[in-house]
Amino acid sequence: MFNSANNSQHSLLDDLRSLATHAEELLKAATSLSGEEVQQTREKLQESLQQTRQYLEQRHGRAREKAKQVAAATDQYAHERPWRFALGGVALGVLLGAACTANYGSRRAAG
């Protein structure tokens, strides 16, 4: 799973680098190239932009599906084991309360 995420990050970075390169070429071309060369560079830029958009839409869809799966699994686990979640909530509350009390006590002693 982590390899897949790492590969997609590299792919996204490569796409963004390519898009930036084509944008830079277009900016340079605006002053020094002929009309045909500017048009070719624009087409490259548009193609890179389209590929990057498609990739981002795919990643968004995959991330949304993964989040739905995680939420469903968590919901199922919570319904099957409600006492674990209740005890976990109580334990978290006790820890946060202790941390806040300790922080308040140290401020009060210093002040």
TrEMBL record:
Keywords of the record: Membrane, Transmembrane, Transmembrane helix
InterPro entries: DUF883_N, YqjD/ElaB
Domain DUF883: 11-56
Keyword Transmembrane helix among UniProt keywords: yes
Record-level Gene Ontology MF annotations: ribosome binding
Extent of the signal sequence: none
Organism whose genome encodes this protein: Solimonas aquatica
Regions crossing the membrane: 85-105
Keyword Transmembrane helix among UniProt keywords: yes
Protein name: Membrane-anchored ribosome-binding protein, inhibits growth in stationary phase, ElaB/YqjD/DUF883 family
